[in-house]
Amino acid sequence: MRSALITGAAARLGRAIARELHRDHRVIIHYRSSAAAAQQLVDELNAIRPGSAVALHSDLVSAADCARLAEQAAQQWGGVDVLVNNASAFFPTPVGSATEEHWDQLIGSNLKAPFFLSQALAQSLAQGSGCIVNMADIHAERPMPRHPIYCAAKAGLVMLTKSLALELAPQVRVNAVAPGAILWPEQQTVDDTSKAKVLERIPLARTGGAEDIARTVRFLVSDAPYISGQVIAVDGGRNLNI
């Protein structure tokens, strides 16, 4: 059975992706601060299939952090076949108030960590003809007001996806998923008026669910052997009307 490492998998989209991939993979649940939630998910998955899930902690701040996580993950079951770079910081940084710390947090989690983790696992992924799925954003191409650093980081991740697809071919496929309105941000209060304005611009007239993202990731992992270097928007058509 193949093994998958999902970063930021203790909650929200990462949790849904871990559950979906667990259908036919052993899963490594990475977490930064949500130890209890990560262990709860591991217990849930191991109750379904014993010995099929573990949790690993890493701050993913430095290249050394990424290398350690990659080594620990590969040691679990003799290698990692699938890497899902899902962990992501997200908060506004309007021009005039952004700090270097904001830059380091947003670029670090959304671009730096995916690169160094992919690099650290490249050999293991190649041995198993594996794949990488990066979690991009529809705002990588069309900027979101008050979020210039986040959007720049996700734009970099899109190019990283395409670059790695070229660099790691033919042994490793690399793709990305770009969610639209799936889950409202945890760190920010979104009022009903703001939500309504977003929904008005979605052709399908509704938000998506975490399962929509999880199923797309699973498609790219398990059912897309001739797809690489692509970014799939899962947004109800939102990118057509930004």
TrEMBL record:
The keyword Nucleotide-binding does not apply. Keywords: Oxidoreductase. It comes from Microbulbifer donghaiensis. GO terms for molecular function: oxidoreductase activity. This is Pteridine reductase. Transmembrane segments: none annotated. Belongs to the short-chain dehydrogenases/reductases (SDR) family. CDD domains: PR_SDR_c.
